Amino acid sequence: MKSMKQTMNVIWMTMKLQMKQSFARPMFRFCLLINPVVNTIFLYEMFLNSGEDNFMAYVVLGAGLMGLWCCICFSSAGDINRERFSGTLPLIYVAPEGFGTIIFGKICGNTLISLLSFGISYGTAFLLTGKSITIQYPVKFLFAFLTAVTCFVIVSLCVAYFLMLSRKTELYMNLLEIPFELLCGFVFPIEILPKWIQYISNLLAPTWAVRILKESIAKNNMEKETVYYLILGVEVLILVAIAVILYRWMDRSIRKKATLEVS
User: Fold this and answer.
1) Rg of the Cα atoms in the chain
2) What torsion, rounded to 10 degrees, do the Cα atoms 32, 36, 38, 43 define?
């Protein structure tokens, strides 16, 4: 019990420190504060003549998801690179509480502060149009939202472990942002993509998290949502297994090749 309390305390303290460090960086502030405003305006123009009655909900949701994923790419993934060039990555790796605990706390801190992008998107949309957003089933939407956030945290954990093995972190985190936004249907349905790309999209857990979120806004198709939750649950379990395998692989590789330093 004491060990669990200590671990939770380490995670909480890491989250607070990470949020302060992330907000101090100009690039993160741009991703968090400016990016959602610009994306909301663009998406509003795109959805204006879509014929969807509650299209503002999709505008805010799309801009918020893009802001969240952008912050995850340039912070959760980029932190590995920053720690490496700061010379602190080896110290974190051998921390008594465990490297996995520290990285999990950093990802949770980044994700928590990144949720502000949804509020900024909503405020921008309201100032732009004066229209409010209708969510017919708020409890269902809240559960779907928490499920999606959990999914993004686990995806971030896999990405962070993978990037531990490479010194080309900046290249990979730039490659991750836009393709994921397109493949996972953050803005538009993946059904408009070519069939072979849809197969790739369906293999990505965030695709199902986004589908659940969009279904929860105004529709009430429990059968379809149940299927989405089951598929997402299976894919999240696979991601957890991948994270465990990546951690063990990373640990062996680092001990053998000493890839934590810059050179």
Assistant:
1) 19
2) 160
Residue 112 in tokens: 């928590």
Print the SS3 string covering 24-61: CCHHHHHHHHHHHHHHHHHHHHHHCCCCCCCHHHHHHH
Q: Comparing C-alpha atoms, which of 80, 97, 104, 96 is closest to residue 261?
A: 80
DSSP 194: -
Residue 190 in contact with residue 184, Cβ under 8 Å? yes
Residues in the chain: 263
Residue type, 203: L
Tokens 């993934």 found at: 77
Sign of CA dihedral 73, 17, 33, 192: positive
Q: Please tell me the distance from the alpha carbon of residue 127 to that of residue 121, in angstroms, as a whole number.
A: 10
Tokens 């836009």 appear where?
178
Give the whole-angstrom CA distance, residue 243 versus residue 100. 10
Running along the chain, 263 residues long, what does each successive block of 10 average in pLDDT? Answer: 79 90 85 87 81 73 84 71 80 83 87 89 84 78 89 85 72 77 83 89 90 79 87 92 87 76 61
pTM (2 d.p.): 0.83
Q: What contacts 238, CB < 8 A, 6 or more positions away? A: none
